[in-house]
Design a protein that fits this description.
Blueprint lengths: L16 E3 L1 H9 L4 H13 L6 E7 L4 E7 L4 E6 L2 H6 L2 H32 L1
Parallel strand pairs: 1-2
Antiparallel strand pairs: 2-3, 3-4
């Protein structure tokens, strides 16, 4: 029996905020201060239990961050960093915006699940 193991740099099981290697390189070139690094760590910690995944990537053509939000099976929406945001705001602001959208999707669908439970009890 032969076992082939190919470790990936980007593995993050159970995490709902995933940042591609190209986006990681971009963030490193931005020279984030300690406050922004702490904010990114907080965002990652807050997203651990969110069923909606945020995949942040770097768009080489536009030279900006982009993200996709989905629940593992269903794709919900792409998010593109705007031109003004890329020029004047920290990239952490964009990641925070994406996490807020994922949180809003979570609240929307959890609310629907609660309604389904109530309706099933009513008969």
């Amino acid at each position: 029996m032969q076992l082939n193991f190919h470790p990936q740099q980007n593995q993050s099981f159970g995490m709902s905020l995933k940042i591609s290697e190209s986006a990681q390189k971009f963030l490193k070139t931005k020279g984030l201060n300690n406050q922004e690094i702490d904010k990114l760590a907080t965002l990652a910690g807050n997203q651990v239990k969110n069923p909606f995944q945020v995949h942040v990537d770097f768009d080489n053509k536009l030279k900006r961050l982009k993200a996709d939000i989905y629940d593992g099976m269903t794709y919900y929406e792409p998010v593109q960093e705007g031109l003004l945001g890329s020029l004047f705001l920290s990239p952490i602001h964009f990641i925070k915006k994406c996490c807020k959208k994922a949180d809003a999707l979570k609240e929307k669908f959890i609310g629907n699940d609660k309604l389904d439970d109530i309706f099933s009890k009513l008969g």
